[in-house]
Amino acid sequence: MLSAKNLFSYRKYWAERFGVAPVLPMSWQEMDELGWDSCDIIIVTGDAYVDHPSFGMALIGRLLESQGFRVGIISQPDWHSADPFRVLGRPNLFFGISAGNMDSMVNRYTADRKIRSNDAYTPNGEGGKRPDRSVVVYAQRAREAYKGVPIIIGGIEASLRRIAHYDYWSDKVRRSILPDSKADLLVFGNAERALVEVAHRLGAGEKVSEIRDVRGTGYMRSEIPEDWVEIDSTTLDDKMTPAGSSQVVSFQHRPKDIERSRFVVRLPSYDQVIIDQQVYAHASRVFHLETNPGNARPLVQRHGKRDVWLNPPPLPLETKELDRIYELPYTRRPHPAYGEAKNPAWEMIRFSINIMRGCFGGCTFCSITEHEGRIVQNRSEDSVIREIETIRDSVPGFTGTISDLGGPTANMYNLRCQDPKVEASCRRLSCIYPDICKYMSTDHKPLTGLYRRARKVPGIKRVLIASGLRYDMAIRDPEYIRELVTNHVGGYLKIAPEHTESGPLDKMMKPGIGSYDKFKQLFEKFSKEAGKEQYLIPYFIAAHPGTTDEDMLNLAIWLKRNNFRPDQVQAFLPTPLALASAMYHSGYNPLRKVRRGSEKVSAVRGARQRRLHKAFLRYHDPENWPLLRDALKSMGRADLIGNGKKHLVPSFQPAGTGGKFAHRSETRAKRSSSRVAPKRSVRTNQRRRKPSKR
Questions:
Q1: Which of 1, 133, 142, 343 allows an S-S link to 95, with CB 3.0 to 4.6 Å?
Q2: pLDDT, tens only, 554-603
Q3: What residues does each domain of the chain span?
């Protein structure tokens, strides 16, 4: 079994003598008050600095501080010049560059590529405080500010762009973020192990160019070392190249007499994936097969004359390590420099607690597994209880309600593969799709016990659960659902079946709607037993790869039959590195081997079709009725237009609704020459349309 050095076993850096800072400094004045003449490490972030473990700059900054380093924060600098990057002086060891808790493009733009007017990670929600592709811009400015200082990039933006990737906003495949940012080192995934080791090695005088063996890091190099054997995976699965020299072998002809740790997998090059979409899908599949820390091998991908080299993913943190990280001396509030400004992201999570990391669900549209991994890492029950007490005693405005105990999911706490050997060798993309693996534990007793203990903490009135719930796992343990429904639901529980049809669900790697129905039955049963009137709020995705207009129509019919009227609509947003994004860009399915003639996947690309798919989810909104009527007629389902219960949309249009879509639909109707007139006309409050001849 692989093992890692404990995060807190390193000999502390000499600057430990300065002690713990009340808050990590953002100015020279704060540094003077701490007695510092310089920072050892400066973290540059696209978010406002909130000293709370849910914010990356605080968690990493406090962890490095606990190792003895002096850490400063440059938050949301003006990127138009290098001067704001000099505000704390020259760092002794390195600049750590991050876009923040979100990819900057996801943060700044909607799924329709429209710029957002606000930013939840900025004081008062003000928009425009970070540049597009922040990591690249910040890295360039930091290099300009102080030449020769090592640049280490990390966070979710760097993590999800570590190889050549499809970029939805420019609608093209972009290079790895490493050559674009000209960083010395990239840390991906949960970066604690990598950053602590790198910081200590740099502090000991080692050059950043010599640090090449740390898991969870990537860098540029000119050639493969002589003692490594390259596995060529640059061609499709049915076109594998035969074994070549002793230093290059094919994926299908790997010699068994060579130590596994000396293999490196070569992905198709950047030049290949930008011209061949099927090869791009193949590269995505190979990449995702090498994400289990127990068996992943290094990856290389050619960019021009050099390679991006990615070491295997970091080993998961142990419970004791995770406990100490979350119990570092955070103030749990925004930096005092922001005064009375409101921070929407902090307001949302200040009374919530992270109890675990990672997700073994593997949903193709989600970035959690690419970033945090498929092995769930858990905090101890005692540590969670101590954090509840800290919130109760120190966080302003606390009224006795913990808003969430969760993480990437609500109910994967202390769940993992029951056989360590199987876990270390497994290459499945999901532990619970298409069925829950026989080795995967579904015992929710530890989580149920945590809920019950949390409710008994003095001063705590309620403990709510707001994280996403995997209902397909929850139905394996009805007692957990009983505890959840009886004590931890505030009237409404959000849940994400995502769709009702097998086509899109298969491409999402999500369970069928039958699992939702079983959960709903148990939810309603236990709510009734508790004497509570509570409701499920289902979430669905529009325009996901593999979704047809007929799929969305069937979903809309299901919604109406079940009396659901969604207020908000989530449209699929292709994020870098996600498997669903590879489907969207390439038109092929990377969940299976990619060969010539492989299964093709339809993608919802056009603006009108994306509007239509969202309109089906909001079938009850009069603004969508003209578009839906037009679509239903085109699909041969005009029988769903009318004023009865069996109809999806009415035939009349209220005055002042419909907007431009009403005009367009009317114009199409006037131009039509092949439709049959209806049996009877329907009076409306609009001018009479030409009879339909359908």
A1: 142
A2: 999 999 999 999 988 899 999 999 999 999 999 999 999 999 889 899 99
A3: 1-218, 222-315, 347-468, 489-601, 621-694
